[in-house]
Amino acid sequence: MALLSFLFNSKPKTANVAKERLQIIIARERTGREGYDFLPALREELIAVISKYTKVNPEDIKVSLDKQGNLEVLDVNVVLPELELRS
User: Fold this and answer.
1) pLDDT(62) > 60
2) Is 35 a domain residue?
3) How many domains does the chain have?
4) What is the 3-state secondary structure (H, E, C) of 72-86?
5) Does some domain include residue 24?
6) pLDDT over 90 percentage in the chain
7) Per-residue model confidence as pLDDT tens digits over 11-53
């Protein structure tokens, strides 16, 4: 039975082929992309959260995404204001 199925269904379905090709294209675009469009939104959300707990200059928050080999590293640098000591 498998032999008959192999002989008569030798062509893959067009929809499946199109789906696989689209997945390959999307994967290539994701890996070839230089800029990440979510970083500005992430930075704004970080500013909002940190501002709930302390005063911070928005210019003192840096967010970047770097590639190191096969890994992507999210780097968040926040310069916090110096604490005032009460006596």
Assistant:
1) yes
2) yes
3) 1
4) EEEEEEECCCCCCCC
5) yes
6) 0
7) 557 777 777 777 777 776 666 555 567 778 888 888 888 888 8
Residue 28: CATH number of its domain:
3.30.1070
- Listing DSSP states for the chain in one string gives -HHHHHHH--SPPHHHHHHHHHHHHHHHHHHH-SS-TTHHHHHHHHHHHHHHHS---GGGEEEEEEEETTEEEEEEEE-PPPPPPP-
Domain-located, residue 85: no
Domain that holds residue 21: 12-78
Q: What is the pTM of this model?
A: 0.49
| CB-CB neighbours of 74 under 10 Å | 11
Domain assignment present for residue 68? The answer is: yes
Indicate the Cα dihedral angle 50, 52, 56, 60, nearest 10°.
20
Look up residue 15 and give its two tokens.
């929809």
